[in-house]
Amino acid sequence: MRFSVIIPVFNRPDELQKLLESLCKQSLTDFEVIVVEDGSDLSSESIAKCFQEQLSINYYYQQNTGQGFARNKGMELAKGEYFVFFDSDCIIPENYFRILSTNLDSRRLDAHGGPDDAGEDFSEWQKAMNYSMTSFWTTGGIRGKMKNPAKYQARGYNMGFSRLVYEKLGGFVHPNMAEDIEFSIRIKKAGFKLELVEEAFVYHHRKNDFPSFIRQSHQFGRNRVFITRFHKDALKPVHLLPLLFLLGLVFLPIAFLLLKPLGWLMAVAYFLWTMAVFISAQGRVKSRFFAVLTSYGQLIGYGTGVLRQAIFFL
To answer: Which of 13, 140, 142, 223 is the S-S candidate for 44 at Cβ 3.0 to 4.6 Å?
Structure first.
């Protein structure tokens, strides 16, 4: 068996069902599926059993340890040559594994990461969240669209690596904080070849409301600082831009009171950024106001996360 698909799940049986339904439609079927239930109150066992005739699927329940360690358990149980990780809120296009297999062979990859996108049937709110997570005008500008695919740091919702990588490096080192990015960095430092496979995308069916989306973005900001515990060079100047965005918003009223010309200059800059978001969201989000709202929320959440974790480390 070439691929082992490893899915950690926590209290999301309905989402898991949609993910498994999409796996049943794959044009290349040389894979097994391992579902690791990470201490859920809402069990997915019956959902997994419903697909036993359509998929080579194994279900495993464990006490809650976090998604990173749930993935580690999946790798312990896996039989395939190459491990692929999906989050339970993803839907997989039918040619995903055919595309991935072709790229692994032709590019001689040891590991890969893939982008995420919004499906046509997603709500406008979900499309707006997807826009703000993938846009050039937010931190999404480095998420799945790169001139040099070798610079990509894979994310756990859509990533994979070979059994050889696992045998040499082990598994994820943290249950919940930046464990995917840390492992991506470790893979590259060990001399393995990890690249973005842009065509191997997934539909990311986020169920966040606005407050939870901000909390998630806040956690992403915390993660980026936290990862320096393992890799001192993981924090780049580009990762501090959301913090500067946040501090600019906080300082804006003060600038108007004390340095009015500077205040006007800053206000114009934020206005131009807002218009850039509004215009670039055309064709991706019907309600472009939603795209503006989620983009502000994403940058503010990320910026506060960076600030909070930096203060914690101090």
So the answer is: 13
